[in-house]
Specification:
Number of domains: 2
Number of helices: 5
Largest sheet: 7 strands, mixed
Keywords: Membrane, Transmembrane, Transmembrane helix
Number of strands: 7
Helix content: 25-40%
Structural class: alpha+beta
Shape: rod-shaped
Distance between the termini: 73 Å
Length: about 200
């Protein structure tokens, strides 16, 4: 009984949709006839009806996108977390980004995630490979809290890509621990910040 009701409702829907398409084709014929000649109304309406009815499934899907079949999209892991060593042996000089590092250091002054050995606050660095640069395909920059703190040189970027290739990693953002440290050099030079990454030096 339920099956019969479903079938009848489906037939009713198809009849309604065909009727709507016939009305639409007649409307198209009237518009074309008004612009050209009245003798074209019926032929254009018939041609429009044939085209619309033959494509009624596509039209129905376009009108009712909620009923289109869902595509199963595989979730892609966009991040790769670099194995921790706790050595922070990769030290990068970030002279052009001293103000950014100062802001980051001040913002994280009360960060409870402190390294017990270095007595500095551990942050998360994102190493991002930019394949969209038309001038240099090896561009790689380092972000901390969404702010760029360093761009790898050409040789550093190529070395880093080789390292990723050895690990079978591609098209992913690399995450590693980082600490921001500052010191004042001799000869009364200004206070400088550096970033130390928990990754092997480039």
């Amino acid at each position: 009984m339920n099956k019969q009701r479903r079938d009848s409702s489906e037939n009713q829907k198809s009849e309604i949709s065909i009727l709507a398409l016939l009305i639409m084709s007649l409307f198209i014929g009237l518009i074309a006839g008004a612009g050209l000649d009245k003798s074209y109304i019926l032929p254009i309406a018939l041609i429009s009806a044939v085209i619309l009815i033959s494509n009624r499934n596509k039209i129905a899907n376009a009108v009712q996108p909620g009923k289109t079949p869902r595509q199963h999209i595989k979730s892609v892991e966009n991040y790769y977390t670099w194995p921790k060593s706790g050595q922070f042996s990769c030290i990068i000089a970030t002279v052009p980004y001293q103000q950014v590092l100062q802001q980051l250091a001040q913002e994280n002054a009360n960060n409870p995630d402190e390294n017990p050995i270095t007595k500095t606050h551990v942050l998360k660095a994102h190493l991002i490979i930019d394949n969209s640069n038309p001038f240099d395909s090896d561009v790689t920059h380092i972000n901390i809290d969404g702010r760029t703190v360093y761009y790898l040189s050409h040789e550093e970027a190529r070395s880093f890509r080789r390292r990723l290739h050895e690990k079978g990693v591609s098209n992913q953002i690399i995450i590693c621990d980082a600490i921001i440290s500052g010191n004042s050099e001799v000869n009364k030079e200004p206070f400088r910040y550096t970033v130390k990454l928990d990754i092997e030096p480039f």
